[in-house]
Structure formats: structure tokens, C-alpha cells
């Protein structure tokens, strides 16, 4: 017993020093640390989730001993778990004095510094430091603990290259390096870690290609490489990883490549190859993955049809094929699913079995149908490419205000519309006023709860936000992958777009809840305006508002604001599943002067009348120029000169115009006047146009005519019918305008011009 007491004395002395340095004040040294009494064994699950969110935080404070040594006369500390304790200070070197310590978990604390050099002598088998503030280069001391089987340093601030000494850890089965700032190429010495079954390196700043040596990890079951700045293609050696059940690769750099060979991966449950520059068709064998639960092939260059084998994917809960170039018809079994499928932003063909209205459920088909579909005029506007304004729209808009994820509220005399739709995995939602809509894609992975929260409420104290504005920032809409807001039926012109942000999920205190890092990208009108945007950094803290302002040009009556998660930022703080875009409010205001309104007439009447008159004036100018220069009455030469000119309007071929108008079919004629006929048509990209067919006899060359057309087409006004371009080919001369519903354009062009020509 004296020997046992002596051993315990040294252990207790080390524990006292460890507790002092970590600020661990609740250890009662009046009790034997190996007794299991008092606070030496204290496990607790926070049912509400630390910081909210509903997930269990995994709070734990345990010291575990093995007292079987020397015929049950000697005890040694073999495991310590201090999880979510908000411990501060540096990592104590005294842990190395516990010579029998095999497992150490210090995850979700606020520790700083690095790993002490004294640790090189330890015999740890499992070590987790996930979610702290450690920094500096990869700790060399860890590369000397050759007994390690599991090593997790995710969610810290380590930087620099992975040292070649990592190859010393040949017993490693789990290596998690995600959410740090590691750089450089993956060292070839990683190929020695042939016992790996779990490797995660997402959210780092690596360079170079995904190495071929990943094929050496033949025992691996989980491989995650999202948003880590690597280049494609995915090497063919991946085919050797037949035990994979969870593969996540995203946002690769480089060139388009073919689909990686995954045909032998029969254990696959989660397959994410998002934005990996993959082209070609989806392999049919994907449909044979009987255990598949999550499939994400979004934002690639995939072509062809959805394989018929996909009808066997009965177990799949989430399927995202968003943002590809898929064609053909959408299988009826997909449309009838009660699970989440996102087929938005593709080029499918319209059929009688297709949806007759904008879907509001588990199947998202926004902008999914090709503009060349034979019966596109029957397609609901939300399913068409470019999201055209519906013919049934009663009025056009000039502004937009949305309280994202919140209720209707009034701020400084402006009413922000409510946006409190709770769903979001594969979701299209149109605001009650039908002046806006959103499309949401993605589910929060690994969150260990039954449902996802797409509307977040603040868990941090709002600061530097006025009382009047606070309603905009107490809630926000979240997305795990992709979220697009649409401003619908807007006047064409320039707008000021203000995006309101506040980080309300992470805390603004000294706890580990404050250590999260949210990073995402923002696009406006398909243009990247914010790259690796971090709300907290930009605002100077959590719970603080920041407004980012941009100018956007609306030329097809629709404004798109797209938020995208590119695999960057932490995913496990304060709990698993907290990541992705977060937007508090959106405001959109015109940069042009609106027309005066007659109280007895609707807004659209004024707009249409203004557009018609402006169009008439435009044509008068054009014809006046042509008549004055003596162009009318003479044959124009072919448009060889046009290709070399820098025009502000488009040049269309006769073949394009004939295709758009079905060879000037009489059924498409919408008007007739002294200057010719007007036909309704549809370009290959879905744009609906009005083609004014003119007499095309001129004594002058093309250059003067096109220069004049280009000058006039450069005029921009929200109430001016847009001139898309002209067609000068053979004896044809046509002007191509945006199409206006209800014959507004034809009445303006012929009613007024006809009178003038008489």
C-alpha cells in the first residue's frame, strides 16, 4: 500500500499543477482522484445545447484510473476528459508526468499557445484538442508520440506546412486537421499512414493537387476534403478505397475532369462531390449504392440525363444535383418523392408530367427547365431559366425589403416583409406579396438532431445596434450550402443593394462558444462580391451589425442574391452543424427617379405607358436617321462589317431570328403597321423578344447604320423598352426588343408611329 500511495502522490501532485494552470477549480483533492467520488467523475449532456441549437454539447469532466496494477494494489490515471469546460491558459507540460495516460480530451476550451516539448515522451493513444485557440506550426512534439491512434486538432489556429515527421505516426487510425490554416502541399509521408480509417483536412489553405498516394489508405472509411484549396482532378487511385462510407470533397481548383472511379464503393452512405469541376455524365453505378443516404453532386459540369438506376436509391434522404447541365425529362418517381431532392439550375425538358406550379416542398426545381423546351410557355416562371417575370404579374416593383428569417417589421418608416419559412433543405418559397422568393439547398450534416434549423435566433447579446434596427438582427436565415434570394418583376435599371449581417450564433464572451468561424461567399447577379466573408471579423465582434452595400444592374426584371458555403469555417462550434451563410435582412432601392403616379391608375399602367411612348420615340429616332441618310429603299449588304464593331447592342443572325419566331409564323405575329410587322419570339436562352421586321433597302453601308443603332441602344431608363439588337442579313433588316405583355409594345409602335407616318 505504501508503493500505491507513493505512485498516487506523484499523480496527485501533477494533477494539482494541471488544475492550477488550467483554472480547474472544482477538483477536490481531499478525495482520492481514483475514487470516482465528488467531481473526479462528472459527465453531463446539456439537453438544450450550449449556446442553443438543440444539440448535446458533450460537457465532460472525468479522471479515469486503472487500479489493476500489481495485483490490484496500484492505481494509475489512464484517461482524462475535460470537455467544454471553458478552460484557459496554456497546455500544461505536467500531463507528461502521468506516464500511464492513454487518452486525453481537451476539446471545446479556450487554451492558447502550443503543445509543450515535454509531451514528446508521452504514450498517448488518443488525443483531442478540437475547438481551442492553439497556434503556431504543427506541433513537433505530437509527431514523436508514435503510440497515437487518434489525433484531433481541428478548429485551432495552427499554420504552416504539415511536417514530414507526420509519417512517424504509423499507428494512426484517425487524423483530423480541419479548420486550421495549414499551407503547402500534402507531404508524401502521409502515404505511410496505411491504417487510417478517418482522415479530415477540410477548411485549410493547402496548395497543389490531391495526391495519388491517397490510394494507399485502403482501410479508410471517412475522407473529408472540403474547402481546403486543393486542385483537381480527383485521382484515379481513389478507386482503391473500397471501404469508404463517407466521402466529402468540394470546391476544387483546376480544370474540368471526368467522374472519379467509385464503382466498388458499396458501403457509401454520404457522397459529396460538390463544385469539383466534374464533367460528363453521372455514372449509372451511383444508383447501385444501396446504403447511400446523402448525395451531393451540385455545382459541377455534369451533362446527360439522370440515370434510370437512380430509381433504386430508395434510402437516399437528400439528393442535390443543383447547378449542372443535366438534360432530358425529370423522372416521375423523383417528382413524387417525399424526401428532399434539389434539381434546380439545370436544362431539363418540359413534359406533360412536369409540375404545373412552382413547387413548395421537398423537390426544388427552380430554373431547372431549358429555354428551348417545346412547351416552355406552359412552364411556371420559377422553373424557367432566368426566372422571367410572370405574365400574370399585376405590377412591377422598384424596391425590396426582407427581414430574413424574421417577422414583418418597420424600420425608419420602411416595412421589411416577413420571411419565416422554417424549411430549407430543398426549398422554393415565394413571399406573400410575390415580389420576392428564395431557393434553398442543403441540410446541416453531423448535427445529431432530428431536424435542421434554417431560421436562427440570437444567442449572443446584440450590441452597437439601435433599438429600432434590432428586429432585423434578432433572427436570420441560415443555409448549409446554397441560398438564393430573388427580387421579382423589378424595373430594369441600377439598384443599391444592402445586405444586413450580424453574427448571432456565436457568443461574445470568453467561452468556447465564441470560437466559431463562419465563412461564406456572396454573389449578386452571378458576380462574386464577397469572398470568404466572415461576419464577425467584418463587424468587429459577434452581435454587431454590419451592412455591405453594392450596386446591381437589373436588365431582365430579376435580381439574384446568392449565398454559398464553399466548405470554409468551423463546423463543430458551439456544436456540430453550425456553419454556412447567415443573412439578417435585405434592402434594395432604385438608383433612378421613379415616374410620377396617377392615383386612379395602377403602377403597371404608368410603367407600360411610359415604356410604350419611350419605345415609340426610339423608333422615330431610328427611322428618322435612316430616312435622313437615305438608307430606306436600298439593299443592305451582308453583315460582314458588324463582327468587328464594338456595339452596345447585339447582332443576331437571320437563322436565330427565324428560329425564335418559327420562321415568322403568322401565329406569332402580334402587330402590323406602316413600317412592317412585329412577331413574338423566344431566344435559345429563354428570353422572350419582339422582332420588328423592317424594309431593308439602303444606299449607305452597315457601319453608319450600326453606329447610330449602337448610340441609341446605349440609352438606359427603367421605362424604356430595351433594344436587344438588330439583324442585318441579305435583304432582311430587323430590330429586336424585349417583349411586353398584352400587346403594349405593338400598340405603341404601330398606334403612334402609324399616325405619324400618315
Automatic annotation (TrEMBL):
Catalyses: L-threonyl-[protein] + ATP = O-phospho-L-threonyl-[protein] + ADP + H(+); L-seryl-[protein] + ATP = O-phospho-L-seryl-[protein] + ADP + H(+)
Domain Protein kinase intervals: 664-758
Domain of life, source organism: Eukaryota
The family database entries (InterPro entries) matched by this protein are listed as: Kinase-like_dom_sf, Leu-rich_rpt, LRR_dom_sf, LRR_Rcpt-Like_S/T_Kinase, Malectin_dom, Prot_kinase_dom, Protein_kinase_ATP_BS, Ser-Thr/Tyr_kinase_cat_dom
- State whether keyword Glycoprotein applies: yes
Could you tell me the keywords of this UniProt record? Answer: ATP-binding, Glycoprotein, Kinase, Leucine-rich repeat, Membrane, Nucleotide-binding, Phosphoprotein, Receptor, Repeat, Serine/threonine-protein kinase, Signal, Transferase, Transmembrane, Transmembrane helix
Residue positions binding ATP: 692
Q: Look up keyword Transmembrane helix and say if it applies.
A: yes
Q: Looking at the Swiss-Prot or TrEMBL record, what is one Pfam family this protein matches? A: LRR_1
SUPFAM superfamilies given for it? L domain-like (SSF52058), Protein kinase-like (PK-like) (SSF56112)
A GO CC term attached to the entry = membrane
Q: How does it sit in the membrane?
A: Single-pass type I membrane protein
Annotated protein name in UniProt: non-specific serine/threonine protein kinase
Q: Where in the cell is it found?
A: Membrane
EC code: 2.7.11.1
Q: Which residues form a coiled coil?
A: none
Q: What class of enzyme is it?
A: transferase
Q: Where are the transmembrane segments?
A: 603-627
What is the protein's major site of localization?
A: membrane
MF terms per GO, please?
ATP binding; protein serine/threonine kinase activity
Under PANTHER family, the record lists: LEUCINE-RICH REPEAT-CONTAINING PROTEIN DDB_G0281931-RELATED (PTHR48006), PROTEIN KINASE DOMAIN-CONTAINING PROTEIN (PTHR48006:SF68)
Amino acid at each position: 500500500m505504501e508503493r500505491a500511495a507513493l505512485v498516487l502522490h506523484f499523480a496527485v501532485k501533477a494533477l494539482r499543477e494541471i488544475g492550477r494552470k488550467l483554472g480547474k477549480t472544482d477538483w477536490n483533492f481531499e478525495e482520492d482522484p481514483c475514487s470516482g467520488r465528488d467531481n473526479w467523475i462528472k459527465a453531463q449532456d446539456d439537453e438544450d445545447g450550449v449556446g442553443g441549437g438543440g444539440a448535446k454539447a458533450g460537457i465532460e469532466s472525468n479522471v479515469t484510473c486503472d487500479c489493476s496494477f500489481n495485483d490490484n494494489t496500484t492505481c494509475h490515471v489512464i484517461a482524462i476528459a475535460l470537455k467544454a469546460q471553458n478552460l484557459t491558459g496554456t497546455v500544461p507540460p505536467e500531463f507528461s508526468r502521468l506516464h500511464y495516460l492513454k487518452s486525453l480530451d481537451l476539446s471545446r476550451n479556450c487554451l492558447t499557445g502550443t503543445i509543450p516539448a515535454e509531451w514528446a515522451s508521452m504514450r498517448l493513444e488518443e488525443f483531442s484538442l478540437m475547438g481551442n485557440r492553439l497556434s503556431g506550426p504543427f506541433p513537433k512534439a505530437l509527431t514523436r508520440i508514435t503510440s497515437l491512434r487518434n489525433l484531433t486538432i481541428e478548429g485551432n489556429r495552427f499554420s504552416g506546412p504539415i511536417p514530414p515527421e507526420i509519417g512517424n505516426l504509423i499507428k494512426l487510425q484517425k487524423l483530423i486537421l480541419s479548420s486550421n490554416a495549414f499551407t503547402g502541399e500534402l507531404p508524401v509521408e502521409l502515404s505511410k499512414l496505411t491504417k487510417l480509417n478517418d482522415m479530415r483536412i477540410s477548411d485549410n489553405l493547402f496548395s497543389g493537387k490531391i495526391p495519388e498516394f491517397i490510394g494507399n489508405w485502403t482501410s479508410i472509411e471517412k475522407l473529408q476534403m472540403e474547402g481546403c484549396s486543393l486542385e483537381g482532378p480527383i485521382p484515379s487511385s481513389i478507386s482503391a478505397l473500397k471501404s469508404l462510407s463517407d466521402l466529402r470533397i468540394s470546391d476544387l481548383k483546376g480544370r474540368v475532369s471526368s467522374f472519379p472511379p467509385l464503382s466498388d464503393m458499396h458501403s457509401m452512405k454520404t457522397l459529396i462531390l460538390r463544385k469539383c469541376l466534374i464533367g460528363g455524365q453521372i455514372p449509372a453505378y451511383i444508383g447501385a449504392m444501396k446504403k447511400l443516404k446523402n448525395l451531393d453532386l451540385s455545382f459541377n459540369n455534369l451533362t446527360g440525363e439522370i440515370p434510370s438506376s437512380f430509381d433504386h436509391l430508395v434510402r437516399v434522404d437528400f439528393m442535390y444535383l443543383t447547378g449542372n447541365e443535366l438534360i432530358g425529362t425529370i423522372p416521375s418517381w423523383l417528382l413524387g418523392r417525399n424526401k428532399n431532392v434539389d434539381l434546380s439550375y439545370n436544362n431539363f425538358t418540359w413534359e406533360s408530367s412536369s409540375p404545373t406550379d412552382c413547387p413548395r416542398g421537398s423537390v426544388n426545381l427552380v430554373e431547372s427547365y431549358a429555354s428551348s423546351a417545346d412547351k416552355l410557355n406552359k412552364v411556371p416562371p420559377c422553373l424557367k431559366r432566368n426566372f422571367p417575370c410572370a405574365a400574370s404579374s399585376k405590377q412591377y416593383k422598384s424596391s425590396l425589403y426582407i427581414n430574413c428569417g424574421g417577422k414583418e417589421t418597420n424600420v425608419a418608416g420602411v416595412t421589411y416583409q416577413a420571411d419565416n419559412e422554417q424549411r430549407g433543405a430543398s426549398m422554393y418559397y415565394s413571399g406573400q406579396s410575390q415580389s420576392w422568393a428564395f431557393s434553398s439547398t442543403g441540410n446541416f450534416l453531423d448535427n445529431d438532431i432530428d431536424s435542421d434549423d434554417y431560421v436562427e435566433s440570437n444567442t449572443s447579446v446584440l450590441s452597437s445596434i439601435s433599438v429600432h434596427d434590432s428586429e432585423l438582427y434578432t433572427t436570420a436565415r441560415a443555409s448549409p450550402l446554397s441560398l438564393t434570394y430573388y427580387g421579382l418583376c423589378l424595373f430594369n435599371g441600377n439598384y443599391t443593394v444592402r445586405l444586413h449581417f450580424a453574427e448571432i450564433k456565436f457568443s461574445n464572451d470568453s467561452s468556447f462558444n465564441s470560437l466559431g468561424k463562419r465563412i461564406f461567399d456572396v454573389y449578386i447577379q452571378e458576380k462574386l462580391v464577397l469572398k470568404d466573408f466572415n461576419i464577425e471579423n467584418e463587424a468587429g465582434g459577434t452581435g454587431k451589425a454590419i451592412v455591405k452595400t453594392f450596386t446591381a444592374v437589373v436588365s431582365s426584371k430579376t435580381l439574384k442574391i446568392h449565398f454559398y458555403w464553399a466548405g470554409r469555417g468551423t463546423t463543430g462550434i458551439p456544436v456540430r452543424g453550425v456553419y454556412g451563410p447567415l443573412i439578417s435582412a435585405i434592402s434594395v432601392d432604385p438608383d433612378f427617379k421613379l415616374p410620377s403616379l396617377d392615383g386612379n391608375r395602377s403602377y403597371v399602367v404608368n410603367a407600360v405607358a411610359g415604356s410604350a411612348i419611350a419605345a415609340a420615340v426610339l423608333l422615330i429616332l431610328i427611322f428618322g436617321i435612316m430616312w435622313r441618310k437615305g438608307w430606306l429603299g436600298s439593299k443592305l449588304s451582308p453583315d460582314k462589317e458588324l463582327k468587328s464593331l464594338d456595339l452596345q447592342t447585339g447582332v443576331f443572325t437571320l437563322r436565330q431570328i427565324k428560329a425564335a419566331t418559327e420562321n415568322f409564323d403568322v401565329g406569332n405575329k402580334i402587330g402590323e403597321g406602316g413600317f412592317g410587322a412585329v412577331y413574338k419570339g423566344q431566344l435559345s436562352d429563354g428570353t422572350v423578344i419582339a422582332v420588328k421586321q423592317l424594309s431593308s433597302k439602303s444606299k449607305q453601308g452597315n457601319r453608319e447604320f450600326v453606329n447610330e443603332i449602337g448610340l441609341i441602344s446605349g440609352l438606359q431608363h427603367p421605362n424604356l423598352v430595351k433594344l436587344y439588337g438588330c439583324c442585318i442579313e441579305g435583304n432582311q433588316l430587323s430590330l429586336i426588343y424585349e417583349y411586353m405583355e398584352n400587346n403594349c409594345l405593338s400598340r405603341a409602335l404601330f398606334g403612334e408611329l402609324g399616325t405619324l407616318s400618315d
